[in-house]
Amino acid sequence: MPLYISMIEKKFLILLLEDSEYQTEQIIEFLKKDTLLILAAETIKEAKKILHDMGKNIDLLILDLKLPDGNGLDFLRFARKSHLTIPAIITSAYISANVHRDGDRLQVHNYLEKPLSMNALQSEVDTVLSS
What we know:
Elements: E1 12-17, H1 21-31, E2 36-41, H2 44-54, E3 60-64, E4 66-67, E5 70-71, H3 72-81, E6 88-92, H4 97-105, E7 110-113, H5 118-130
Parallel strand pairs: 1-2, 1-3, 3-6, 6-7
Antiparallel strand pairs: 4-5
């Protein structure tokens, strides 16, 4: 009798920190797949709560730079101080040399300028999650 093994695809968990409701909806709709679960936060405070509850299960951070209560790099510093090495993608309308310098120290995977190319975002997400 042959043996059949069912392969269950791994689900990846993404934390999206974005204060624009429109941008959040656009990203979630574009990245929607059976293998992805996206948790969205509008503030660093909300994202810290998610990180506290789910941090060890999160596979990728997508972080807006400018937020109502700080910036994406502030949140990433918090994650790194919590000894979490989750890959991160920074998004912003303007990414300065200082942001690159600080982000590189925090091991940012990549930077994407807004308006976001959804295809570029998808490519970066696929790259991170396949490694």
